[in-house]
Amino acid sequence: MRLFALLLAASALAGCATRPIPASKPAPGPVPMLEKQVFQMTPQEVHRYIGHAQQAEPDLRKRIAAIGRKNIGQPYKLHLLGEFPFELHDSLPMFSLENSDCVVFAEHTYAMAMSKSWEEFFWMLQRIRYKDGVIGVATRNHYTEVDWNLNNSWLVTDISADLAGLSGPSYELTVDRQKFLKTRHQTERSIPVQNSREYFLPTERVAEVAAQLQDGDFVNVVSTRNGAYWVSHVGLVVTGPDGERRFLHSSEPQVREESFDAFVARAREREERSAREGKNGQKLAGFKFLRLNDNIVVPPAAPQPRPGFASAN
């Protein structure tokens, strides 16, 4: 009787055990998701698409442009991403396919272009979004100039000063991360205030350096108001069929590709409208350009520290 009971228990346990899932093979013939834009795809379709993109276009610069254009029409939406469920300061997820803002669009495009699978894409996205790839609101690259650009120096290099020359303008940037984290994310951290000198190219000089820009270069749009300057928008450089350097970016109402002249013209229209309405709106001052590095070596992410008691509250 005891032997029978043991056999019965073993049989029950075997029934609960996880059974291996047979590996799926890509279906032969045309790939259906190629008819969709990326924001219309499921994660499973994105997995197949980025694997296909790696094989179809071996050149990283061209692959970035192709994947970015594959998202033209993606609806624009602010405040998309957070750290949920890794952290509970908000309920925003760690990726978004359906919508984008300017930073989300650039990060997702770079991450997809450098990956061969969904799993690698998700890892790469966090490597780009966070300092050393360590997930957390305090390590997220909040400030473009001193967080995103510097922490992703393995990916892009600021060439703004070289393009602008000795006479190029610059601005002093002061960043108080401790205050920002406390007021915006209810997160306490002891972080010293940082000052940085940032160089940029004035708007009227973009045309003269445009030919030096390359597919996949990172664009920082510099705005000004009341004497302060900061990066207010980002996007990517792509090359048109005629060799014209164009601006691919996520902006209200959706991802678009346009000439730099068209982008500047729209900015000037907004400024004139704000002036007529008596509003003290921000104004376009110029651009920072960061060159996509050659022979990129993606550094490993730092170990994810175990959250302490204070971090859990």
From TrEMBL:
SUPFAM superfamilies: Cysteine proteinases. It comes from the Bacteria. InterPro entries: AmiA-like, Papain-like_cys_pep_sf. Signal peptide: none annotated. It holds the Pfam family AmiA-like. This is DUF1460 domain-containing protein.
